[in-house]
Design brief:
This protein has about 280 residues and is α+β, with helices and mostly antiparallel strands. It has 9 helices and 10 strands. Strands 4, 5, 6, 7, 8 and 10 form a 6-stranded mixed sheet that branches. A hairpin with a 4-residue loop joins strand 5 and strand 6. Helix 6 runs antiparallel to helix 7 and helix 6 runs parallel beside helix 8. The longest helix is centred in the last third of the chain and has 16 residues.
């Protein structure tokens, strides 16, 4: 084990012993995905807060949900991952904390003028402001600002400076704001084929299928990535070869996914993966 890995593992053990749920990150600041069944969250994202339990594969493989204070697990079951780790991350919500991730100087200037002072931790491009209290997480709540708390992870970059203060309403309001309009899917994502009415039944059949996919996505309270992929796959399984899907239909599905926090890139990737799997 190299010196960096040893230091990271020791830091993780100390943080876990202090009550902070931690997990290893590999190069690129991303969690380990240690089995094919969990690649791209295909396993459904378990374990997590909404669906307790774990897959049959060894942990860690589920991002924030892999974070734990179990020092024995870090020292034994997860030892191979710490040998290859590039950084330590933690689950703020699991520790009753919220991290306001300020990605640049304008974001820091805004925070200083808007938010109550609290503990700050320097990052490579900005600062983490840490508050006491958990809340839902959201990315891009304003330019250069992400909120990381429940169902999210943040890199451990040191203890920081200043006293941790209570989570203010100004931060909660950032996530409570109405979401930004969804970005439209790139044109040309609709599937080519025999143009015209869906040959399976009637146009109402396509409409019903789209409505069911939208409802399935918007009702998801966990494993959103996997739910979006499965909904896309279900639509393409039935309508992927008949030519009845248009860019307007695809945009409806993308809008539903983005309402749950999915990025346009994630939507495009999930759509492409579903098409590849079906060969359409």
């Amino acid at each position: 084990m190299n010196v960096l890995a040893v230091n990271l593992r020791l830091a993780a053990l100390q943080l876990a012993a202090s009550g902070l749920p931690v997990l290893p990150l590999r190069a690129g600041k991303v969690p380990f995905g240690n089995c094919p069944a969990c690649l791209r969250n295909q396993c459904g994202g378990r374990p997590n807060m909404k669906t307790p339990g774990r897959c049959a594969c060894p942990l860690p493989c589920h991002g924030w949900a892999a974070a734990t204070t179990d020092t024995h697990r870090h020292a034994t079951e997860w030892a191979p991952y710490w040998q290859r780790a590039a950084a330590v991350a933690y689950h703020p919500g699991g520790a009753g904390l919220t991290v306001v991730d300020l990605d640049n100087e304008p974001a820091i200037t805004w925070a200083r003028a808007t938010l109550p002072p609290t503990r700050t931790v320097p990052t490579s491009r900005g600062e983490h402001w840490i508050y006491r209290g958990a809340m839902p997480s959201a990315n891009g709540v304003r330019p250069g600002v992400d909120v990381k708390s429940s169902m999210a992870y943040a890199r451990w970059l040191g203890p920081g400076e200043g006293a941790i203060t209570a989570l203010p309403g100004e931060v909660r309001a950032l996530v409570a704001k109405a979401p930004a309009p969804a970005r439209r899917a790139p044109s040309g994502l609709a599937v080519s084929g025999t143009a015209g009415e869906c040959p399976h039944r009637t146009p109402a059949y396509l409409e019903r299928g789209l409505a069911m996919a939208e409802q399935r996505i918007t009702a998801a309270d966990s494993a959103v990535h996997a739910t979006v992929y499965r909904a896309f796959l279900a639509v393409l399984t039935v309508h992927g070869r008949c030519g009845c899907l248009t860019d307007t239909h695809v945009n409806r599905l993308f809008t539903a996914a983005q309402s749950k926090g999915e990025s346009l890139r994630h939507c495009t990737d999930a759509w492409a993966n579903a098409r590849t799997r079906l060969g359409v």
